[in-house]
Q: What sequence folds into this?
């Protein structure tokens, strides 16, 4: 599943990327260009804009919740998707590109020294060159997902 989220759902876009979903964040342009992009790319529109949610053509999911955990819960329920641990942290949270493994030697000097000494696995975004590693945030994501599912 691929998504396109409107400007009021930036945090939800980031979370969907963390979960491994191909998620575009549409923050410029008019509603008709959003619909055209969604149809062209085969994306489901996720929005809090009630007028946009009634548009025809592209599949649209309206999110009522204001807080991020409630938005996550609502989106997962309405889209009938379950987070897959195998997909998590597979996309860049900034630019949505699929992440790739990178050798530890290649990140020396590009990550904090403590991280370099204590971590062995690193992944990188081929587009923006950001480097990721399994830190405490991975556990925090699991905790948040458990809170959402209860």
A:
């Amino acid at each position: 599943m691929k998504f396109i989220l409107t400007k009021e759902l930036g945090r939800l876009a980031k979370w969907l990327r963390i979960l491994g979903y191909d998620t575009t964040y549409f923050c410029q342009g008019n509603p008709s260009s959003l619909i055209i992009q969604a149809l062209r790319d085969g994306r489901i529109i996720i929005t809090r804009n009630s007028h946009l949610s009634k548009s025809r053509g592209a599949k649209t999911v309206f999110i009522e919740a204001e807080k991020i955990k409630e938005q996550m819960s609502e989106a997962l329920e309405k889209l009938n998707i379950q987070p897959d641990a195998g997909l998590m942290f597979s996309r860049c949270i900034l630019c949505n590109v699929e992440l790739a493994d990178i050798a530890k030697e290649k990140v020396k000097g590009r990550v904090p020294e403590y991280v370099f000494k204590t971590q062995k696995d690193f992944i990188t975004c081929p587009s923006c060159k950001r480097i990721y590693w399994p830190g405490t945030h991975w556990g925090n994501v699991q905790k948040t997902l458990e809170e959402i599912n209860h």
